[in-house]
Amino acid sequence: MDAVRWTRTGTGQGMLPGKLRLIDQTRLPGELVYIETDDRDEIVDAIKRLVVRGAPAIGCAAALGLTAVCQHSGAKSATAFLAEVREHAAVIGAARPTAVNLAWAVNRCVRKLEAGAGDEGRGERVEGKGTGAAAVAALKDALAREALAILDEDMALCRAIGENGVALFEGRKGVGVLTHCNAGALATSDFGTALAPIYAAQERGLAPRVFADETRPLLQGARLTAWELHRAGVDVTLICDNMAAQVMREGRVQMVIVGADRIAANGDTANKIGTYGVAILARHHGIPFYVAAPYSTIDSALAQGSQIPIEQRAADEIRHGFGRLTAPADCKVYNPAFDVTPAELIAGIITERGILRPPYPETIREFMARCGG
Amino acid sequence: MDAVRWTRTGTGQGMLPGKLRLIDQTRLPGELVYIETDDRDEIVDAIKRLVVRGAPAIGCAAALGLTAVCQHSGAKSATAFLAEVREHAAVIGAARPTAVNLAWAVNRCVRKLEAGAGDEGRGERVEGKGTGAAAVAALKDALAREALAILDEDMALCRAIGENGVALFEGRKGVGVLTHCNAGALATSDFGTALAPIYAAQERGLAPRVFADETRPLLQGARLTAWELHRAGVDVTLICDNMAAQVMREGRVQMVIVGADRIAANGDTANKIGTYGVAILARHHGIPFYVAAPYSTIDSALAQGSQIPIEQRAADEIRHGFGRLTAPADCKVYNPAFDVTPAELIAGIITERGILRPPYPETIREFMARCGG
Predict the structure, then answer these.
(1) With an 8 Å Cβ cutoff, are B236 and A319 in contact?
(2) How far apart are CA B119 and CA B114, in angstroms?
(3) Best residue of A229, A240, A334 to probe chain B, by most B CBs closer than 10 Å
(4) What is the CATH number of the domain that holds A366?
(5) Which residue segment(s) compose the domain that A298 sits in?
(6) CA dihedral A142, A147, A151, A157 (to 10 degrees)
(7) What are B155-211's pLDDT values in tens digits?
(8) Which of A72, A254, B165, B182 is exposed most, by the fewest CB atoms within 10 A?
């Protein structure tokens, strides 16, 4: 799966020239269409329209997009080039206000260039490459390398989450796994987070059997999770959200794995609306409920989940979501985008550096200290 | 609200000739359209396609439908007519497998005719109306009267369920009630079952606040419950099924009331898929979970819920339900129409003759003995 990639458009040995390439996720599951672009407005529009979504994927797209735009700069000095990069970074970084990885990724690129250019006084000399055009060319290369590093790191951490999570399958074939929303390959640059252990199990021939909640109102489970697992040859069965309890009762599921948008210091986990209900159902049926997420999702500054603000979304996502009116047009709607699953319902948090187990206040504190986070 | 009615098409004083009239619930909430028919295939199709749905409404529709079809019989003797009635009853009664009221209603009609016809030896003489054509005409009238009796009884029992259920509101204003699917006026011939206590509370000025699960895949909660409550001026808020846990957690709900398709002798209750999950969530949050249903829904012959067959429905209800493809077209789907909520999760069963409380094997046995059922 290649939701976010860099495409070289030249014949030279370096990364440049090239373009940002995205799977247009607004066209799924009907059509698999790629968008290739080096145009800033198109990149901002793609992020706004959810052509690319999922925090890690947005971060990678923003960094590669910044590279694609800045390669065409006609700046004559490192200083002038840096000014242009900062301006493009500000615009791309503001494409969606709440996606923390978006600003994080473009800021990381800018800081890298500032550090490199700053070595030789006012940014006119760069890493021994001289001044003027040579310095600008060197900065363009450095930007491309940093953006690709962000992509490579994301791919590596997906793989690591998969490696750590696959231990839960303990060599058992045909384990039933229920997942909610999409924390898969389409939300990242590679294996996904919640789906990474499933892909890893599939690679090992363990043939996991996945039940994907369709995840109303925006149906990420139906449109994206079912699509990407099906395409990858994984045995996936789509269900409506309200069927999870019955599937559990029938013994079809031995494990739940979901992603996370934010994890508090005590282990409370914010994720797509419905996750909390799935966790209660899993507890009722004695099925372990796991969260899979990179350690960057843990926000040590938040003592507990009740401090996480819950975004309310538009009523028509529910009333008019399938291309036709499915409720009275003026009916009152409650549409929270996320919920918080309390730590006591979570059997483990699968990260790229291992599986965290309860009691979370302690294990998370130790883990963050070890990671320097 | 008039989901199921008999329309007289002649000018005489009796009920015949006439047609079964249904609100086409597949067209709601966009359009209020009625279907009038006396054609068996159309009636079976209407039941299958959920033009009419909800156990009591299906029972009424089946009995009135049987009447509408049989009125055109050219049988020359009571015996021949009864054979035709039995054949039509078998076909209509098999239109959907899980709804007990369907078979109950048509069988009640058949038994009534058999009892009447049987008085005079081999069914050739009927209630003093002589033989041949006169006997057949008398049986047609008897059939119409029995079907209308079923309709009238349903209307009376909806009111009685409302009266009994409203006691749970104890004069409190603004009580939050969560309901799933539609066991309202559209599921019956009048006030509904699960919604009857809500309508009764509304009539008493108690202004209940209802949260309606949209109820995927067919969205009866969004299309029907939200529509009929909104239309009746009840404060109703539509949510996706996966938001129920969050709504409970936020303290917005003090009670759950759902309908039932079939109740076993031990209290286990089959109802629309998702009901079981709601019951678990209610238990987790300490919220009482009630079933509202007429006593005819109790099937004493079934010792427990595991004996209730669960209908599986078409995959495209989930993949392609509302005018657009929302999942891969060839994706595997699991689509059970019902689930069974175990008796231990049910705080009470609101019937037209009072509220049954645990332990159900005992209270149901006494109740059925008292009702002669």
Answers:
(1) no
(2) 9
(3) A240
(4) 3.40.50.10470
(5) 163-371
(6) 80
(7) 999 999 999 999 999 889 999 999 999 999 999 988 899 999 999 999 999 999 999
(8) A72
